[in-house]
Design goal:
The protein has 451 residues and is α/β, with parallel strands linked by helices. The protein folds into two domains: 235 residues, Alpha-Beta Barrel (TIM Barrel); 105 residues, Double Stranded RNA Binding Domain, CATH 3.30.160.20. Helix content is 38%, strand content 16%. The protein contains 15 helices and 16 strands. It has an eight-stranded mixed β-barrel, surrounded by five helices. Strands 13-16-15-14 form a four-stranded mixed beta sheet, with helices on one face. Strands 5-6-7 form a three-stranded antiparallel beta sheet. The protein is elongated and about 80 Å long. It starts with a strand and ends in a 36-residue tail after the last helix.
Length: 451
């Protein structure tokens, strides 16, 4: 069996975690149709720890990787109803990720597969679950198949039932889409067969999220159009949107509409395949207008925040123009030491709109910055150092400046660390910085999207 251990849980009907399925549009659609709790796709702890939390103009909370890829996206509507599913084998990393997302989700779920011996002995599986229960978890989800089994194999209701009867915490049954759950009434049937307190649905909900409606299924065309609206509204990647729609169409993939969907290579083409081209154009126009308005607002705020005493230039740092391991910041630090000035102090901020950075460096009580915003904090700081060095008329270490004395110092003494004789410090060390901060919130309202 495979088990999930939610550290926090509530609700009875769940859209199960499924990679490429548990994205924001599908989760919101499931909530529309009656799901109590939704799961995100499983996300690995190491990947999440590299992310920063950003408030998007879409009114979403994004956890963004260093390469600007959105790893996890959520929103206020699902904050009390989404469970964050994490893959982890390290307690400290798991705790760190839990703290990173805890204010944006309803619960934390640790996903794990039982060791192989537990896959064949029901008694050992029950004993393992009892041990897990003692750690203080709030609930446990059981995917009722053995490690070597696949969705087409029958779900082991007897094992889930044995676990349900062996522990006092809620047990969530999963795996009934193939054998049990064809419509809403079947959810209760599966729940009784497993003696579980809750039911988690994956494939049946992916095929038609309106399976959660007590009144019965909605027409598939309406379901797909509702999904597309969320996908456009929340800028879902078209490949994921296309995959989910193909799962809904299933046997209709060979129809004219199915073939159009299969050929689609963008969100716009997907919309056109479902006669929603006008919706796409209208929604895109609203966002473009909003983006333009925000850009003006950001520029106005930049102008208002401008300190007339800050010296500015439009410069960028291009590492190709400098020798390896030599930077303008190093040159500025060395100049400050020679002139007996305090070390440079860098203050760096990030704009929520485009996630670009700007840095101001203070040297001898004078501030310097580039008017150009950069894609990383490090590049912004180097640009600020360049502005300072050029204003002072001091060499900045570029290859075109000829002999580089810092390189010569590095070669001294069998490549021993570069040491300042006066201060006994390694010039390669980063300069002193004030606490840098990243702007994560925005009070700007986003217009309502057409439904």
């Amino acid at each position: 069996m495979t088990v999930n251990t939610p550290l926090c849980f509530k609700g009875k009907k769940i859209l199960a975690p499924m990679v490429r399925v548990g994205t924001l549009p599908m989760r919101l659609l499931a909530l529309d149709y009656g799901a109590d709790i939704v799961y995100c796709e499983e996300l690995i702890d190491i990947k999440m720890l590299q992310c920063k939390r950003v408030i998007n103009v879409l009114e979403t909370v994004d956890f963004v990787a260093p390469n600007d890829r959105v790893v996890f996206r959520t929103c206020e509507r699902e904050r009390e109803r989404v469970v964050f599913q994490m893959g982890s084998a390290d307690a400290e990393r798991a705790l760190a990720v839990a703290k990173l997302v805890e204010s944006d989700v309803a619960g934390i779920d640790i996903n794990m597969g039982c060791p192989k011996e537990y896959s064949t002995k029901v008694e050992d599986t029950v004993n393992l679950v009892k041990r897990i229960e003692k750690t203080g978890i709030a609930a446990i989800a059981v995917h009722g198949r053995k490690k070597e089994e696949r969705p087409q194999h029958p779900v082991h209701c007897d094992v889930i039932k044995a676990i349900s009867e062996a522990v006092s915490i809620p047990v969530i049954a999963n795996g009934g889409s193939h054998d049990f759950i064809k419509e809403y009434a079947d959810i209760e049937t599966f729940q009784k067969a497993t003696a579980a307190s809750s039911v988690m649905i994956a494939r049946a909900a992916m095929w038609n999220p309106s399976v959660f409606r007590k009144e019965g299924f909605c027409p598939l065309k309406d379901v797909m159009q509702d999904y597309i609206k969320y996908a456009v509204r929340y800028d879902n990647h078209y490949t994921n949107t296309k995959y989910c729609l193909c799962q809904m169409l299933r046997e209709q993939l060979e129809t004219t509409q199915g073939k159009k969907l299969h050929a689609a290579q963008s969100t716009q083409e997907i919309c056109e395949a479902f006669e929603m081209g006008d919706f796409y154009e209208e929604t895109t126009a609203i966002f473009e207008a909003k983006k333009a308005s925000l850009e003006i607002k950001v520029q106005d705020e930049d102008d208002q925040m401008e300190d007339p005493d800050v010296i500015k230039m439009a410069v960028r740092f291009d590492k190709r123009e400098y020798p390896p391991q030599i930077t303008p910041k190093m040159y500025l630090l060395e100049w400050c030491r020679k002139e007996k000035h305090p070390q440079p102090v860098y203050e760096t901020v990030q704009r929520p709109l485009d996630r670009l950075f700007c840095s101001v460096v203070t040297v001898a009580e004078q501030k310097y910055r580039s008017t150009l915003w950069d894609k990383s904090k490090k590049l912004a700081e180097q640009a600020a150092a360049i502005v300072c060095l050029r204003t002072l008329g001091v060499a900045e270490g570029k290859l075109c400046e000829g002999e580089n004395h810092l390189i010569n110092k590095r070669k001294r003494g069998d490549q021993e660390p570069l040491i300042s004789r006066d201060h006994g410090e390694d010039l390669a060390e980063p300069s002193h910085k004030k606490a840098n901060f990243v702007e994560e919130t925005s009070d700007m309202n986003v217009p309502k999207m057409p439904r």
